[in-house]
Amino acid sequence: MTAAVQHAGMSRRTNAEWLAALQGGDGKDAALSDLRTYLLRAALFTLRRARHYVGHLGSSALAQLAEDCAQESLTAILQRLDTFRGQSHFTTWAYTFAVNTALMAGRQERWASVPLEEVLEGTATPSLAVGNPAGIDPEQHALRAEALVAIREGIEQLTVKQQQLLRTVIFEQVPLDEVVRRWSSNRNALYKLLHDARRKLKSYLLARGFDVEEILDLFAVRA
Amino acid sequence: MSTSNYERLLRLAARTQEQELSCTECFDVLPQYVDLEVAGAAPERQLPLFRQHLEQCGVCREEYETVRELARLEAEGRSPSIDDLRRTL
Fold this sequence. Notes:
The complex is a heterodimer of chains A (about 220) and B (about 90). Chain A is mainly α and about 220 residues long. Chain A has helices at about 15-20, 30-50, 50-55, 60-80, 90-110, 115-120, 140-155, 160-170, 175-180, 185-205, 210-220. The longest helix of chain A has 22 residues, at about 30-50. The model of chain A has no long low-confidence stretch (mean pLDDT about 90). With about 90 residues, chain B is an all-alpha fold. In chain B, helix 2 packs parallel to helix 5 and helix 4 crosses helix 5.
């Protein structure tokens, strides 16, 4: 990617020119100022879009949060300049930092005061009542019930941590970042924990004679 | 507990791969994927594991969607001004 991107009042720069300036070449101050503007725009845009997280905050608090996120992402970018490989526009790469920082801040605003101890520390597998909808023949109903038992047992053979994470993130739809924060962990580690849980569950169901796609078909749910 | 929770879990399990990108790998690929997409290329062919990660990871998916919107607006010369963004917070 070599095409330059320009905004009103800012210099047009190629990726190489961004890097050269930010690494101490001519025009470093101007490049820093322009980059900070890009990041502030991205943080404001992100927080405005993420009303589901920050809708309870007033406009001045949101503007301040955006300023903080822009500053934090600027610091992160300057520390990681040497990792930019030029496979995208420099500005798109920079936006990724600002958006990540602003969404993490927004998620924390939304979830920090929500009590999650019960789901995060609990060990009970949620029960599921098997209904008997009209039009389902007895054989299909029995198959459905058998599949649900297998799913439940499949969840129970996961580790306690895997069950807690699966319940919180997949069932309760709490953002992974919030669990990362509460468990003092990191995204990669928790994503791996969930990945292992999904693989284990899929294998368990297969060993019990259920292909996951077949279960979805049984309940007429398309993956 | 509703069946929809189990359905969500099964959909995710059905699309589980032996090898998946980590969130850090997804973060690193994201700008390249977005720029290819905004340019009208077909990045899913070039970077298939990225899309698979997004199906599994809500936080990465939300970040991707936001960066893609920003990059699209920029490519179309319609990036919002900081003043407009502040006014509409």
